[in-house]
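Action item from last week, closing it out:
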Amino acid sequence: MSLAPPSNDTVPAQAVGPHRVLIATLSVSNFVIGMGAFMIIGLLEPLAEGLQISTARAGTVLTTYAVTYAILSPILVSVTGGIGRRRVLAAGLALFGLGCALPVLIPSEVALHISRILAAAGAGLFTPVAAAVAAGLSAPERRAKALAAVFFGMTMSQILGLPVGSFVAYTFGWRAAFAVVLVLLLPCLWLVWTIVPRGLSFQPVTLRDLGRVMRNGRLMLAAGFTTSFLMAGYVVNTFLAPLLSQNLGWGRDGLTLALGVCGIGAVLGNIMGGALSDRIGPARTLTFLCLAQLVVLPGFSLLPLAGGDAGALAGTLAMGLLVLWSVFGWSFMAAQQARLVTLAPEATPVMLALNAAGVYVGAAIGSAFGGLVLAGFGLWPLGLVAGALMLVALAHLRLSVRLSD
């Protein structure tokens, strides 16, 4: 990645080097953002009960966040391309914090959707810029591991953030979960402002750069694979809590344990994705992950058969399924980011912003699709539908590899 000409208050990336404290700060901040963004999955039922709406309707809160992120993230990253990275990162965290504070103060469905718009805008600034900083500070042969390190915070939000958020929501109410995120966010904002060097800047990106990438069909096809892969997973992910509670009879403690098990799988997957991508290449890694999910996802349609009198055996099988699903799902991000950076190194911030947007486009479509399936047919077909969509994602990937690599 080329560098912007340094000015009096600009620190070029090569002057900083791969700084472990900086990477750790970005990772911890991603943890809080991941918790605040995705804990909705674990508190759908208390949220629906508190607002007196259906579970499917409560799930649209995640859709609001996803759509907003997808639209705003590439635009915000482009229009702030000439601003020092510290200021952009701090602004993103502050905006995310405002989004978490609003539902604590105003517990209504409308306020919750507005809060998700604000939070998505903040996360849409922070997360791709953090990834671009990590990629720019790393040698090409270690780029996937650096990206995995920054994304590790998002992964840890699965093993700690989601279970804690779910437990707090079931015990003290859903508003308390947002309050916890806000409290955790404040020291992260201080750390970013203190640790990230003043004026740290890469080559500025503009809306013109965004338009140039979006007119490139080859690059957009590669970035769009993120949407395809995540769309399949979110058919199940959005409604994981009711899948487990209604099919297996799990309550607060069971769901908290299940989310913790998913988090363990997510950590293993994050490590595996970065290492495997550096070793065999991003494209092969992504192909393997699609094939693995094709086997795992339909298993969620078998959960009703595992319930009832099966007891401990059903619980053990369900936990095993959750681990595999999390490992293969969370191995995806480091490999996909590394592939996109390799395809367009001169447009790294834009590509990573589009990738982050693709996450939420996939989440929005997957959650909306899952909601339609849930409303029309119930919970049991979700795994089969997710598996069918993963087959589409595999075809998407192979076409992109043929045209790009």
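Closing note: The chain has 18 helices and two strands.
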